[in-house]
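User: Show me a protein chain along with its predicted structure.
Assistant: Here is one chain, sequence first, then structure tokens.
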Amino acid sequence: MKKITRSDKNIFMKILLIYPYCLENRIHEEDAGVVPIGLYYIGALLRDNNYDVEILNFQGLNKNNDKIKEILISRNPDVIGFSILNANRWGGIEIAGMAKQINPDVKNIFGGVSAAFLWKHFLEHFPEIDYIVTGEGEYTFLNLIRIFEKKDNKSIKEIRGIAYRDNKIIVKTKPAEPIQNIDLLPNPAKYFTYQHISLTRGCPGNCTFCGSPGFWGRKVRFHSCDYFVEQIEMLYKKGISFFYISDDTFTLKKNLVIEICKKIIEKNLNISWAAISRVDCINDEILSWMRKAGCSQISYGVESGSEKNRKFFNKNITIDQVKNAFSLTQKYGILARAYFIYGCPGENDDTINETIDLIKEIKPLSTIFYILDIFPGTALYEDFRKRFNINDDIWLNRIEDILWFEYDPDLSKEKILAFGKKLRTSFYKSLPGFADSIELIDNKELYPLHADFFSKLAMTFSHGDYSQVEDIPGKEKTAENLCKKALQYAPDHRAFLNLGMIYQKQGDFAKSIEILSKGLDFFPKSEELHLCIGISYMNLGQFKKALSYFLDFKDSKQMAFYIEHCYKKIYGKNHSHLKLLP
């Protein structure tokens, strides 16, 4: 692709699209650590129209203003578009202020979900913000750039979907029309590399805690199978092999998802991916195809075991649907993750126990527990404002969100912390039992995938996130059992290696050598298996035997230490003349 420079005739200005840093450090990176897909779509449309645009992720730079200023000075942008969530709005405000200090003429444009709902608040209180994009951003942003290019300020009012100041009077134009055929947007993978992708815009659900209905509307627009898979394929060729599909409900159109899965398999794209769905939007057929196409995890919004709480959230699902979804998902070797929310009005020990009882029934292998927080644009926010007589000026405080319990006289911080601890402790103590109880569908076509599922889960207990959690009992034994289950289905490199390391840790080096030798029968060129078995032989004092495994990879940097150590043990300190031995 031809590199665009400012010297090109069609290039008038330098445009930055910035994802600002959050106010607080993140517990879960996926919450707010990655650039939203919307910025890539805007960037792609601008690139398609020959504009010089760059996307910058400023997560993690909140304590490095000098670095931000250095970037702004070096890039010297004429226009900056900011992707604004509630969590990063203060970062956007601060960066916009820095940009104005460096160049008072720079145009700062806020867009995204928080900007769409707080457009008046931003323009009333923050003069460093020039324009707000109040909805879907691609063509609105492009139209603004064209106006800036022509220096035709009189035509600003004709652009739909913006808010701005006109002689200190705040003006909001008519909403932009939704893009009916989102396939007409340029594919962002032509220009950028990223992992979070999206099939749809909109969600038919109407959960009270979610801003999607207010931002996108409840009518869902879909990319075609060809557009979506082409995006994956282009990213795959750039080296991306794991994807997060960030749609609120990826499986709304079952036939479309199955078509996508078949196309991924047909194109031999060796990928894995995680998705989000609803418990009432899956069945055997779709899960089977999703697994064969690389799906490794599905997250479901369960929210609560209390029917009263689910009604408060307007979560229109039944307990039977929840049980069915988790049973089916894990039957196909897809990790089922559950989202729960606690701390809503009326939360008490009984409702928390109902959630714990449900967790023990559905046996999720991963959970995320959120304290109920409130954001602009949600039904809960409107309810909150009326109940407590609060307006948008609350967002002048340096907060990311509003925690419901902080205003509810029947709840306290102590109660909420106790609820959270009770939920997490119960889940963690039950988790090994959940893992041991998994029974996968007996389908020989899926056996290698079943092995992969069990070995990945085992690594989570032995080396991953769960290995650090003190409340989980018997982690090593759980990992061992899961590796053995994996090998009952198919030879699995990860399972052989993990078992070898587990037995090493137990001091049973003979058993480690036995399982690693079996692994080498299937994976004779594995450097990791050679290294691990060599270390077991070293622990038995058999250094010549260990050396024979290390020397198969004598050019490897990680083997160098062990080769050196074996030479010293075998031949003594004066061994330099032996280093060239085969």
